[in-house]
Amino acid sequence: QAVSDKALGSLMLLVASVVFVYYTTWALVLPFLPPDNAVHQYFLPREWAVRIPALILLLGLSAVGAFVSTVMIREGRKR
Amino acid sequence: MTRATTFFSAFGILSGIYFAFFNADLPEKFQLIIPVFAPARDFYNSAQHRTVHRYVQLPWWTLVSFGSYALWTLGWAMLSIRECPEAYDELTKFVAFKKRPACIWHSQRELEDLLHIQHFVRQILPELTFHR
Q: Which UniProt keywords apply (chain A) (predicted)?
């Protein structure tokens, strides 16, 4: 057991908090700030705030579908 | 009302409200005051008022926040659940005890009986009798 449970759990916590805070400011706070604000340089252009979750969702669904299909093929071949 | 009914009715009401505001042409003051609603256009770029760049943020934001909440719950559970070392010790002792050979030499069985009797005499019998 290379990585302890606590280390992995705290890493997941950190990643979840960072993702949530970053995405919330990016999607909901930034449009209300004037465009000459210095904060905007830390974020990608805002169409990516929609494209990245859409890509992740697409990849996730296709991975789930591929897994289900391989399982079904294997079951069919066993019979 | 079942939980599915309440869930889907709440979902339907919220999405109805969202879609009602989605196509409404609110004056700019209200678009800033109403809590952050899928800014359909960037407010400081007047050129975009013509072309409707609908970066529909709120549904994607709920999806991302749900994913991060799920990850947070997993991480928190992994951090806060104890390992129970005493239960582990007891279980290993129990397993070792059960693993002992079923048919053992007579003398070893007598030895085990003597050990049980000794344990009984030393620890259980004084508590059963009442003299102090």
A: Endoplasmic reticulum, Membrane, Transmembrane, Transmembrane helix
Taking residues A29-45, report their average pLDDT: 76
**Between B57-80 and A48-78, two packed helices, what is the crossing angle to 10 degrees?**
60
Delimit the domains of chain A by residue range.
Answer: 1-43, 44-78
Contacts of A19 in chain B (CB under 8 A): 64, 67-68, 71
Enumerate residues 6+ apart whose C-beta is below 8 A from A35: B42, B44, B45
pLDDT surpassing 50 at residue B52:
no
Q: What is the largest CA-CA distance in chain B?
A: 98
Q: Which helix (H) or strand (E) holds B18?
A: helix B3-23
Interface confidence (ipTM) of the complex: 0.76
DSSP letter, residue B64: H
